[in-house]
Amino acid sequence: MFCAKNAIALKLGLVLLVALNGSVAAEVEGVIGQEADEIVRLCDYKSPGQDQRSMLEISLINAANAEKKSIYRRLWKDSSNEGELFDKMVLYTVFPPEGEGTGFLRWGYKANSGKAPDQWLYLPSMKKIRRVSVRDPGDSFLGSDLSYGDIDDRSISADQHELVSDLITDEFFVVDSRPVAEPKLYSKRRSWYKKGQSWADCHRVKTEFYDKSEDLLKVQELSWQAVSGAWAWDVVTVRNIQTGHSSIFKVYDVEFNVNLSDRLFTERELRRGYRE
Asked: pTM of the full predicted structure?
């Protein structure tokens, strides 16, 4: 999630990225003649690297402008070479103080596996680990305006993609994506992709989510940080237009490709807590 993906399914376009050269703006005319799938493949699926270690700050702001802030130590690892697994993530609460030591472990699975993620929560006050089930992909992730479905792996073929030609400019591609099968969390997502000097620089900067009645539900705006071809969120804001609630995600102190051990993503290590 916080490598964004949508946060986060981020590997599929690498071969095409290597093959393409030159200015995105100069190649717009050729791309418009192709499927919108290609723009999504090239601009949305960014490589997060092999693993990441970072800090994650989440601010939840209600309609009355009251704010609740949490800070986590975040570890993430690509597990797409492990059968049906897609990735692994663990969060250790740093702030607020009363939550310090709480750990959250998540194993995500590839979209074509049909599996819901496995999740565990360690509560130091009880000295117990309990499983956390995801009954509905529309459920809120950590109380934020992103759902579990928003951060899960999603294949390009899960949606029908169409260029919104009247909104395309010299700076942005705009693509509508409509789900092709149930369950449908949204009627469509409309995404803005910022062009760059090459396809490798093209990235998503905004998505509008529309509910099943085709009304605007929420707006996500994204900025990114990239090092040696590996990408992670910088600051991401999600505003629920219908409730007035918003969430701000800040990712900082990011280290890419640090060779994190698989043992860090186990129940045993979750109980022990994070150690430098």
From this structure: 0.84
